[in-house]
Structures are given as C-alpha cells and as structure tokens.
Amino acid sequence: MKQEPKRILQVSGAMNRAGTETMLMNLYRRINKKKLQFDFVSYSSEEAHYDQEIEFYGGKIIRLSNPSSVRELVQAIKDNGPYAAVHSHTLFHCGIANTAARIAGIKVRIAHAHTTQDDSQSFSRRMYLSSMRQIINYNSTHLLACSKGAGKYLFGEREIEGTKYSFIPNAINVEAFLEEKNKSEAVKFKEKHGLEGSLILGHIGRFIEAKNHLFLLEVLEFLLKKEPSAKLLLVGDGDEKEKINVKAKEMGIEKSIVFAGLRQDIPVMLQCMDVFVFPSVYEGLGLVLLEAQASGVPCLVSEAIQEEADLGMGLISRRSLSDSTAQWVDEIISIAGKKLLQPYEVSRVFETKEYTVASSIRKLAGYYLEKTGGANEKDINFLI
C-alpha cells in the first residue's frame, strides 16, 4: 500500500517573492515530496508569485478570507489535513495560527520569527503585541527565529532562553549563485541598460518604508558628485515604488537609476553590482544579504542588520543611519571591488555556518516529525 507523505501546513499570508517566502521555496523545492509535502495558507484572493510552482509540486494553496478568524483556520486544517505540523511565519498573527492549530489537535505547532519590529509603536499596538506574545508562547510547541533579535521581538527575552526556542539559519541555494553563467548574463544586462563602466550600487527588496529607498536616493545623489557615471540598480516591487520614482525625478537623478522590477534571475542581478547597499530601518536577518555574500558582492548595511547575517567573509561593512550620506558614500567607494573569495571557499563557509538548504531541512524535519514518528537521522536525511 502506497504511503502518503506527511503534510505540513505553512501559514505565510501569501507566497509572493520576498525574503521569508523565498526561503520557504528554497526548502520546498528540495524536500523529498514522496515523504514530506507542504500546503500553504493564503489570505489573498489574488494569485501570488509562487502559487503555480507550489501547485506544480503537489502543494495546496488554501485561500482564507479573514486573518483574524481562528474558526476559519481550524476548519481549513480539518478539511485539508491531516497535518503533521503547522508552521506559522506571520509575525504576531502566529498566535492566531497556532491557537487554531492547537484547537484542531495538531501536535507540532511552530512559530517562526523573521523580523525585528514592525511599523507601529502606538500604545494600543504595544498592548496588542504583549497579549499576542503570550498567546504565541502558550500555543506553540516550538519557537524558531532567523536571528536572536527577531526571536526576542516576537517571543520576548525570557522565551529565547527557554527550551522551546531554537535558532534556524535562513537557507539559500548557494550553488545557484556560484554558476559562471551569471557573470556572462550580467554583462548582457549591463549592456542593455547602459551600465557598462559605471560604479553600480544595488538593492534588492520590496518597496516599503522599512527598506529605506529614500535614503538610497540621497546616497546616490551625493555619490554622483564624486562619480558622475554611477548608477543605482533597484530590484523589486511594492507600494512605495511609484513614490520613489517620482522622488528620483524631483531630485533629477532618475536617469542614473534602473528600476528592474521583480526578477527571477537574482544571481545575475547581484553580479551586476559593485556594492550591495542595504540601509533597512529594521530587518530580521536579510536573506538577500546571504545571497549577496554567496555572489561575492561587498555589502554596506545599516545598524538594523542582525549580526548573524555576517558570515565572516569580509564582505559586510556597517554604517549607522545617523551617519551622513557623505560617510556612506566614502564607505561605498572604499569597499567597491573588494577581493572575491573562490567558489569553494564560499561553499565551505555556508556549510560550516549551516546556511544551506540541506542543513535547514534536516533541522526542520526533526521538528516536523518528532511527535509523529520518523524523526531519526536516517529518515530525516531521506527527506532531502
């Protein structure tokens, strides 16, 4: 008799291209789907970037209408299961997700922290966060985080010292960023967009306030005084994109910016960059920083970036957002063209630091299966 794969319900909101969602897809592509299968809860009526790929691999997109409804999610779990685990990635909404999972009888209920703060600090918001922390910690069997800062924000100081808590490094497919074809494709892209011979600043991320695109414009404006041919390559989409476009025109620097939009060829985009600039106001870890380091690109980041993002490859430099744009520009000029590591050195660092997909699958599979059988090392290795 054919044995069905154990199913895991991932609660992520909507599977659009962003850090957490990309990390999940890195894992999903590699798991042995005859043994383990993912389904995904979406609170969007619109098709998300990864939906078709998920369905191609046999996963379900479960569309729900009300993120605040425990009852709706309980019913969805019962209708689409059975599930070995529910794994929620939706910040303080993890409390609702894991409450529903507990009511539905799910033995493994994971809350996963991916960021260090959100946009609102009002009194009512702080009260909400405090109550939701208690709900998350009570209803979750495991508390995971991509950095200590993210864990402390979502679960609280006391909980990250407890037995429920674990640090799970974000996972990327390192090999994809080491392929030689990325360099030749980057040359073609630069030729097409008039970037040859320019000092190219790069940024990859959603156009939201937290990513601080306005500051990137200020940095570019100052850099152009020293390097008139400099360019800014912006990869991504989001609500703030048009605002940034308009501001660039007001500043008279729009001809020095390439808005590349959403891209699937991120390794190629990174090879186009001389310096990756990441001035986030807050950040859980920054998956794209791992990708930049895998590509050998020097990175200049704000103080909001967690220490765990620096893999010790000599590619991460830091400046405070309170520093002047002149100081940021001087640092950019200083680090542009840093010596790159050899591919085998890059692979060794990622394996040692356990930022590989295989390492993350082994860890997560242990959590997924520990209360349902099959959590021994042999079975876990077979899931990759």
UniProtKB/TrEMBL annotation:
Domain Glycosyl transferase family: 189-303
Signal peptide start-end: none
Stretches assigned to coiled coil: none
Keywords on record: Transferase
Keyword field contains Chaperone: no
Domain annotation Glycosyltransferase subfamily 4-like N-terminal: ranges: 19-175
GO molecular function, one term: glycosyltransferase activity
Keyword check for Transferase: yes
Identification of the protein by name: Glycosyltransferase family 1 protein
Organism: Jeotgalibacillus proteolyticus
